[in-house]
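Let's do one together. I've listed all components of the complex below, 266 residues spread over four lines.
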Amino acid sequence: MTEETMTIREMCDAFDVTPRTLRFYEAKELLFPIRDGQKRLFTRRDRGRLKLILRGKRFGFSLEEIRQLLDLYSPGDRQAMQLAATLDVARERLVDMERRRTELTQAIDDLKNQMDIVEDMLSSAGRVRDAAE
Amino acid sequence: MTEETMTIREMCDAFDVTPRTLRFYEAKELLFPIRDGQKRLFTRRDRGRLKLILRGKRFGFSLEEIRQLLDLYSPGDRQAMQLAATLDVARERLVDMERRRTELTQAIDDLKNQMDIVEDMLSSAGRVRDAAE
DNA sequence: AGACAAGATGACGTTTACGTAAAGAGAACG
DNA sequence: CGTTCTCTTTACGTAAACGTCATCTTGTCT
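Okay, and this is what the predicted structure of the assembly comes out as:
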């Protein structure tokens, strides 16, 4: 098995986060590193979860929202009822994300248009300045 | 002209925000309501800016990032140099937003897949349970 | 054994984006 | 004229997500 674990420093270097962040995520029950004495060892599962956490953060999700979604990706020993509830949460998130993408597309188009307008303003101002020389 | 202004309460009702939020945005120079005595009056320009602010927030942008973008949409009396700088900021934001959309699409696909997997787990568990009856 | 480095554990500090309570000004109403 | 709203300013409070010490263990090197 790829039971290859990583120290906290290796994790920090690999994911560009601080030790504080990893301990904080553990305290918030987003990660569950095992212990070697008092040292933390992060498993492949932790790495997968961290990747999802960082992605969720980039989308502006709170850690609590992310934690709920993570349960979907680690259905391990859940009961059917809990899984169904998690699925409901996931369905809401999915709708949310799709709505977000639609809106993002709109915002991108708007921004492009506005940039074109400003660029035109700049180039016409340039012609005015050139003509004055 | 549509010089139709709105009171703070009308704005709150229209955009579903609190007075505190609007005053806060003004303090942070995101909005510039005019005054009638000591009361604020929000113009069409303020409404346009607020719409963009709320949209930016849904994408997880900070108010400071949003403020910089707003300058692009209100190029009013800017100098060419400032406009060019604003354009540079906008270009970075645009790249950021497009990258975000790509990643969001990926996340949506991942989530759908994971939901399918969990749904399969549930339905197979259901069959096991049904068989046991 | 001594020292150094890596990691752990509190505990307080910081930033962002407001919430909330206190106190006063101005119009409006009975 | 007193009361009731609506709005204002000022100021302290708060939740999220860590940053930043200070202090303590522990393994490791010499």
